[in-house]
Write a structure and sequence with these properties.
The protein is mainly alpha-helical. 65% of the residues lie in helices and 0% in strands.
């Protein structure tokens, strides 16, 4: 749904939908946490963010601690000793916790909040694969898993929003690819 002059400024967004989206984002981010933990085994910030997203998804409250866990995972992604794959794994965790704060705005930017964890996880797998001997289709496989495990609420909320915006480099491309397939 492209932005139109008469398009609504807000969308419907229930707390139950937010919980499902946060749980989905946590499920997408969790498999790549070992990439981060391999580089910084004693740094729990990304795992804490995924755990906080899961608590919210299971009925917990949206608290300042949840928001802070998202910021902490983002800060962890900027540690200078990290591999690029580990940095994207931490960004996936950050997006998982931040998904609880999706806004009911009819903005293409909100699509990145819904699919950011999946896209960063796919990028982390792609980067790890390129550095190792695994198949080069790691990002495509990660996006296929994200597509196959997307709950109805994720697809429903995406359907209320404009399509993913341009830009964002390789992660933006992954967001747009996943957005397109989830809308079909």
């Amino acid at each position: 749904m492209p932005n139109k002059p008469n398009a609504p400024e807000t969308i419907e967004l229930s707390e139950d939908e937010l919980r499902v989206i946060a749980g989905y984002a946590a499920d997408c981010a969790c498999p790549v946490l070992p990439l981060f933990e391999r580089d910084l085994p004693s740094d729990t910030r990304p795992r804490d963010a995924v755990d906080a997203a899961r608590v919210f998804a299971a009925g917990g409250r949206r608290t300042g601690a949840l928001r802070q866990s998202a910021w902490a995972a983002f800060k962890a992604s900027r540690e200078p000793s990290l591999s690029p794959a580990a940095a994207d794994a931490a960004r996936a965790a950050s997006h998982a916790a931040a998904a609880a704060y999706l806004h009911p705005k009819a903005s293409a930017h909100q699509v990145k909040h819904i699919l950011g964890a999946a896209a960063h996880a796919a990028r982390a797998e792609e980067l790890a694969s390129a550095a190792g001997t695994e198949s080069t289709g790691a990002a495509a496989e990660a996006l296929a898993r994200a597509r196959d495990h997307a709950p109805t609420a994720v697809r429903t909320v995406l359907g209320r929003l404009p399509v993913a915006p341009p830009g964002g480099g390789p992660v933006g491309e992954l967001v747009r690819a996943l957005d397109a397939v989830l809308r079909t």
